[in-house]
UniProtKB/TrEMBL annotation:
It comes from Iris pallida. GO terms for biological process: RNA modification; system development. PPR repeats lie at residues 45-79, 107-137, 138-168, 169-203, 231-265, 293-327, 422-456, 560-594. One of its GO terms (molecular function) is RNA binding. It comes from the Eukaryota. The keyword Repeat applies. Keywords: Repeat. SUPFAM superfamilies: TPR-like. This is Pentatricopeptide repeat-containing protein-like. The keyword Amino-acid biosynthesis does not apply.
Length: 649
C-alpha cells in the first residue's frame, strides 16, 4: 500500500501556481533579495515588470527577456515597445514584426521603431505601407523613410518625401545631402547643403564624406578647412580620404595636427600606411599607439597578410595580449591566402586548444585550404559537431571543395542538405557538375535555380556556359549566352565570351567563333578569349587563323605561357619551324616560363603530386606501373565512350 500523502487538488494547484510565481519573481528581483519570497504578484505593478524587462533588454538577454514578457500577468504599450526594440536591436525583425502585429494599441514611437527596422532591412515597400498608415508622424518618422530610400539609391523617392516634410531638422537635411552624394550627384548635394538653414558638425561631415567617397579629396579638404567645429569622425573621414587616394604625406600631416585621436584614427592611419607600402612607418606608428585594443591588433594582422608579410603576421599574433576569434581567423586566413597551409593547420589546431572556439568563418577558411577529400570530410565532421554544419556560407564552400577534390557525390549531398540555398549555393553545384563534365545535371540544377526564384549572377552563367561547352550543347549554350543581357540584365564579360568561343570551337564552328571574337568589345578580348579561339584553330587545323590569333595573343602584356606554347606547337605541326622558334625565342626574351603540367592522386589520407617527366617521387615506379596498368586503359575506354556519344547525339 502506498502511504505517501497526496495533497488535495486545490492545494496542489496553489503550489504549482506559487512555484510559477517564485520563478517569475526570481526574474524580476535582484539576487540578494530573492530569499523568503512571499509576495503576491498582484502587488507587483506593470512598472516594476517593465523596469526589469528594460534591464534585461539593456543586457541584450533575449531569452530571459522573452520569458519574463510571456509570464507577465499584465502588459502595456511600454512592455511591448521594449520587447520589440530588443528584437530590432538584435536583428530579429521577424519576431519584432510578429509582436508588432499583435499590439492592442500603437503610438508614433513604436511605429517609428518598426519603420526603422524595415528600412534598415531594405524592405522599403513594407516600410512605405506602414508609414502611409501611421495616424501620427514626427520628424523622426519622415527622416527614417528618407534615409531608407537614400540607402537603396532611390534618391528621387527620397527627395519627393523630403519636399513633403512639414518640419525638417538638421538630420533630415543631412540624410538627403548624403543620399545625393552617395549616388554621385554631388552638384545636387552641394546645392542642398548650401540651402540648409542651420548646419551642424554632422551636416558638414556628411558633405565632406560625400566628396571623399567620389574621389574629390581636394574639394573635401576645402570644405573641411571651413568647418567651424570638427569632431573625431570629421578628422577620420578626411584622413581616410587621403589614404584611399594614396596621398600618404597629406594624411600623415593631418594626423599629426589632430587635437586628439581615438583608436579608429590610429588604426586607420597604421593600416593606410601599410597598404601604401610604408610598412616601416606603419610598425613605428603602431608602436606609438597609446592604447591598442584587440580590433587594432586584428587590423594590423589583416593588412600584413594582405601584403604577403606572413612572418610579421606570426610576430604580431604572438605579441597580442589577448585574442578573439577574429584574431585567429585573420592569422589562419593570412597563411592560407599566402600558401602556407601547414602553418594555417598548426594555428587551427592551436585555436581548438585555446579558449577561443572556431566559428563558421574559421571553418570555411580552413576548408578552402583542404587538398584532399579526407581533409574536407574531417572539417565537415568538425563543423557538424560545433553546430555549423547547416550554415549556408560553410555549406557553399563544402560543395565547392568536395567537387574540387573529386567527390561529386558528397558535393551533391552537401548541396541538398543546405537548409537555405542562395545564389552562391546554386552556382557552386552548377560549377561542380560542369567541372566533372556532367553538363546535363548542371543544366537541370540551373533550371531548378530559376524555378526557386533565384536570379543567376555572372559566376553562375560561367558555370552553365562551361557545362554546355563540355556537353557539346551548342544550341543551348547560344540561348544561355543571349539570355544574359536580354533576360537577366547581365552584361557578358570576358569569361562568358571565352566560354562561348570554347563551345563553338569544340563543335568545329571555328568561323562562327572567329565572328564572336571580331564583334565583341575589344576591351574584353583577353588571354582567355584568344586562347580559346587559338586552341580551336589548332585542333581543327586552321593554321593561318591560328597564326593571326596567336600573334595577337602574345602581344598582350598579361599573356601566360599557354598562348606561346599553343602557337609554337601550331606552327611546328605544319613544319613552320622558323616561326615556332621565333615564338619560343620571344617567350624567352619576355621571361615567360612554361608552367609544367602537374597531376595528383589521393591514396588513403595522403595526396601524391608529380609533374610531367618527373621521376623524383619516392614511389615513382609504383606510380608509373599503376598508370600503365589501371588508369590509361580506363582513359581510353572513356575516350571511346565520348566519341560514341558525340556520334549518336
Amino acid at each position: 500500500m502506498n502511504t505517501r500523502y497526496s495533497p488535495p487538488f486545490a492545494l496542489a494547484r496553489r503550489r504549482r501556481r506559487r512555484s510559477s510565481h517564485l520563478h517569475l519573481l526570481a526574474l524580476i528581483q535582484p539576487k540578494p533579495t530573492r530569499r523568503h519570497v512571499h509576495t503576491d504578484l498582484s502587488l507587483i505593478n506593470v512598472r516594476t515588470f517593465n523596469q526589469r524587462l528594460s534591464s534585461l533588454c539593456r543586457q541584450r538577454n533575449v531569452e530571459q527577456a522573452r520569458l519574463l514578457f510571456d509570464q507577465m500577468p499584465q502588459k502595456d504599450l511600454v512592455t511591448h515597445s521594449t520587447m520589440i526594440n530588443l528584437y530590432l536591436k538584435t536583428n530579429n525583425l521577424p519576431q519584432a514584426l510578429s509582436l508588432f502585429a499583435r499590439l492592442p494599441e500603437r503610438n508614433v514611437v513604436v511605429d517609428s521603431a518598426v519603420l526603422d527596422g524595415l528600412s534598415k532591412a531594405g524592405r522599403l515597400p513594407e516600410a512605405r505601407q506602414l508609414f502611409d498608415r501611421m495616424p501620427e508622424r514626427n520628424v523622426y518618422s519622415w527622416t527614417i523613410l528618407v534615409s531608407g530610400y537614400c540607402r537603396t539609391g532611390e534618391v528621387g523617392q527620397a527627395r519627393e518625401l523630403f519636399d513633403r516634410m512639414p518640419v525638417r531638422n538638421a538630420y533630415s537635411w543631412t540624410a538627403m545631402v548624403l543620399g545625393y552624394a552617395r549616388s554621385g550627384m554631388l552638384r545636387e548635394a552641394r546645392e542642398l547643403f548650401d540651402q540648409m538653414p542651420e548646419k551642424n558638425v554632422v551636416s558638414w561631415t556628411a558633405m565632406v564624406r560625400g566628396y571623399v567617397e567620389c574621389g574629390r579629396v581636394g574639394e573635401a579638404r576645402e570644405l573641411f578647412n571651413r568647418m567651424g567645429h570638427r569632431n573625431l569622425y570629421s578628422w577620420n573621414v578626411m584622413i581616410l580620404g587621403y589614404l584611399e587616394e594614396g596621398r600618404v604625406g597629406e594624411a600623415v600631416e593631418l594626423f599629426e595636427s589632430m587635437p586628439e585621436r581615438n583608436v579608429v584614427t590610429w588604426t586607420s592611419m597604421v593600416t593606410g600606411l601599410a597598404r601604401s607600402g610604408e610598412m616601416g612607418k606603419a610598425r613605428e606608428l603602431f608602436g606609438r599607439m597609446p592604447k591598442k585594443d584587440v580590433a587594432a591588433w586584428n587590423a594590423m594582422i589583416v593588412v600584413c597578410a594582405e601584403e604577403g608579410l606572413v612572418n610579421e603576421v606570426r610576430e604580431l599574433f604572438d605579441l597580442m595580449p589577448e585574442r578573439n576569434v577574429v584574431s585567429w581567423n585573420a592569422a589562419i586566413g593570412g597563411n592560407v591566402r599566402n600558401g602556407f597551409r601547414e602553418e594555417a593547420s598548426r594555428l587551427f589546431i592551436e585555436m581548438l586548444r585555446s579558449p577561443s572556439k572556431p566559428n563558421e568563418a574559421t571553418l570555411t577558411t580552413v576548408l578552402v585550404a583542404a587538398e584532399s577529400t579526407f581533409e574536407v570530410t574531417e572539417i565537415h565532421g568538425l563543423a557538424t559537431l560545433l553546430g555549423f554544419g547547416s550554415d549556408t556560407s560553410f555549406g557553399n564552400a563544402l560543395v565547392t571543395m568536395y567537387s574540387r577534390t573529386g567527390d561529386l557525390g558528397s558535393a551533391r549531398l552537401a548541396f541538398e542538405e543546405l537548409m537555405v540555398k542562395d545564389v552562391v549555393s546554386w552556382t557552386s553545384i552548377i560549377q561542380a557538375y560542369s567541372y566533372h563534365g556532367c553538363g546535363a545535371f548542371a543544366l537541370q540544377a540551373f533550371a531548378r535555380m530559376l524555378r526557386c526564384g533565384a536570379k543567376p549572377d555572372g559566376v553562375a552563367m560561367v558555370g552553365v556556359l562551361s557545362a554546355c561547352s563540355h556537353a557539346g550543347l551548342v544550341g543551348k549554350g547560344r540561348k544561355v549566352f543571349e539570355s544574359m543581357s536580354r533576360v537577366y540584365g547581365l552584361e557578358p564579360q570576358a569569361e562568358h565570351y571565352a566560354c562561348l568561343v570554347d563551345l563553338l570551337g569544340r563543335a568545329g564552328l571555328v568561323t562562327e567563333a572567329e565572328g564572336v571574337v571580331r564583334t565583341m568589345p575589344s576591351s574584353k578580348r583577353d588571354e582567355c578569349v584568344l586562347g580559346a579561339l587559338l586552341g580551336a584553330c589548332r585542333v581543327h587545323d586552321k593554321i593561318e587563323a591560328a597564326g593571326e590569333v596567336g600573334e595577337e595573343l602574345i602581344k598582350l602584356e598579361q599573356a601566360g605561357s599557354g598562348g606561346y606554347v599553343l602557337l609554337a606547337n601550331a606552327y611546328a605541326s605544319r613544319g613552320r619551324w622558323s616561326d615556332a622558334a621565333r615564338v619560343r625565342k620571344t617567350m624567352k626574351e619576355k621571361g615567360v616560363e612554361k608552367v609544367p603540367g602537374v597531376s595528383s592522386i589521393e591514396v588513403g589520407t595522403r595526396r601524391h603530386s608529380f609533374y610531367v617527366g618527373d621521376r623524383s617521387h619516392p614511389r615513382v615506379l609504383e606510380i608509373y606501373v599503376m598508370l600503365d596498368e589501371v588508369l590509361l586503359p580506363h582513359m581510353k575506354d572513356v575516350k571511346l565512350l565520348q566519341s560514341f556519344q558525340s556520334v549518336h547525339t
